[in-house]
Amino acid sequence: METYMNQNDLAMRFGLSFEEMDKILIEHGLKSGELATQKAIDDGYAYISSMNSSKPFYHWNTLKISQLNGGKLLDEISLYTKKVTLVS
Fold first, then answer.
1. CA-to-CA distance for 8 and 27, rounded, in angstroms?
2. pLDDT (0 to 100) of residue 49
């Protein structure tokens, strides 16, 4: 497993849409609008890399993100996936 990836790849890794991952990051105080928070950077959840544009580009730590809610994020995602599968 890659340790750091962009938000699109991170969402796909957890079987979520970009918007669902965005909501999780915002709920945990790791993102505000389009930007990672200082908390996310200071606590090692994200780092900024520069692209050719002036807009910051963030890489997210998959291991730390997977441990949100005391390691329950993966369990929550698994439960959500089961519910969606049952409804389909």
1. 18
2. 85
